[in-house]
Amino acid sequence: MRKTSARGPGTAGGERVLILSAGVGSGHNSAAAAVQQACAERDDVAEVQVLDVLQVSSVLYRALLGKGYFVLVEGAPWLVEWGYDLSDPPFRRRGPIDPWTRVNALPVIAAIRQFRPTSIVCTHFLPAQLVASLLLRGVIDARTAVVTTDYDFQGLWLPGVFHALFVAREEARVELMALGLPPDRVAATGIPIAEQLDAAPSRNAGEPPMLLISAGASGGDYAVSVVRQTMHMRSPFTATVVCGRNDVLRQRMERLVAPAGDRYSVLGFTAEMPQLLRCADLFVGKPGGLSASECMAAGLPMVLVNPIPGQEVRNGDYLMEQGAAVRCNTAATIGWKIDQVLREPGRLQRMQAAARRTGRPDAAADVLTGLLEGPSRPLVVTRAAQKTILGASEQRLVASDLKGPSSLVRLVDSAAGSTVAVLQAEEVGELQNRYGTPDGELVLRRGQAPVSLRWEARRLLRAMLRGDDALPVRVEGLSAPPHVVTG
């Protein structure tokens, strides 16, 4: 998938925004489309392109990463959960990109070079890791953002070089600061979703509650079982069942609910989901990051069914913590569970209010503002600092609490005030010996880096300096404990 749009000849000098996604499920591409939509609202964006990196990869690579994931979800969900937990520690993978991924990344690199972006937004961890490598190698000189698409932060998303990292909720931001990342590089914006309708259509207070059942996302047999159980509910209700592009499932649903008359409406793929979200009173389906974010922005509470182990289970935990969702762990009790919500006086209204508080409808615009108006130099996390962060995580310690030579410090651009590097304390000594001035200042210099400087250090220096020959920096310890940091 490659989509390009331009603002016209009058904006020739504006930003060229490249949005990189990966079609593993629909959420990452939906977030990319939302950011593209937000670009159209900014006068400083001249051109924007969306690229699904899997679509330009080999058929085998695309099948293994895309279809293979959902095969595991259906046949071995325990393996999906194991893989999620295994890849959760930050910087578990610190080495170069493996050869197979590098080969499949060549068309992506070619597309990046051809488009010549001034800014890159990644809505999947695969392109985020690739872009970090390109920054270090000097292949690109663009602002880069990583945008997570689930409520819980997974360490796999954390690259060694980036300009801005956007997470879904404040707790994830606090977690990243506890790892040692600076607050000026991490923002809790929410998950980018398409522009919402201005207002919900008015509903007659005497009408029964409307359920919106996302059957296509829940899978065939499971979705049929869910809908069958709603037919046993005692509470008055109407229901719209959305089956997506699954025509076989839609036909099964139509046959199933035919005896219920006009209580149920069965739809296939529809472009009217924003309207349906606004009309409904309760959503029944899986807690994917984008689906959940759209529901929250619409003030629509959720009944969670059949979550994918790992990210969707954690999404559900967050929504239930906010009071905006309930979870049903078996289809056999789904009707009873919904009845409980509808029959308890005021409960549905409280859940709707919680959903509205949780929603972040402006996330896409906030991501663009944070990136385009943020620091121009990237943040570099050195390999040594990555090792410290990973080691602390594996020992269930907080990296920002560590003391001694392996503790973390930051280099701050003296002029701009933005953090440009996170490194081990013992690395500062080498920098001061090489770049310290007689009056005690620290000025990184391109021409002062002799051949003896390690290859990795030269790459880091190039990333921090960008086009400059020198960069005055100051060394700072980590800020106050994350729990006292706000905003």
TrEMBL record:
TM segment ranges: none
Q: What InterPro entries does this protein's entry cite?
A: Diacylglyc_glucosyltr_N, Glyco_trans_1, Glycosyltransf_28_UgtP
Please report the stretch or stretches of sequence annotated as the Diacylglycerol glucosyltransferase N-terminal domain: 28-193
Q: What's the short name of a Pfam family annotated to this entry?
A: Glycos_transf_1
One cellular component term (GO) for this entry is: membrane
Instruction: Give residue ranges for domain Glycosyl transferase family.
Output: 240-357
> Which Gene3D superfamilies does the record associate with it?
Glycogen Phosphorylase B
Q: Which SUPFAM superfamilies match?
A: UDP-Glycosyltransferase/glycogen phosphorylase
Family, similarity comment: Belongs to the glycosyltransferase 28 family.
Official protein name in the record: Glycosyltransferase
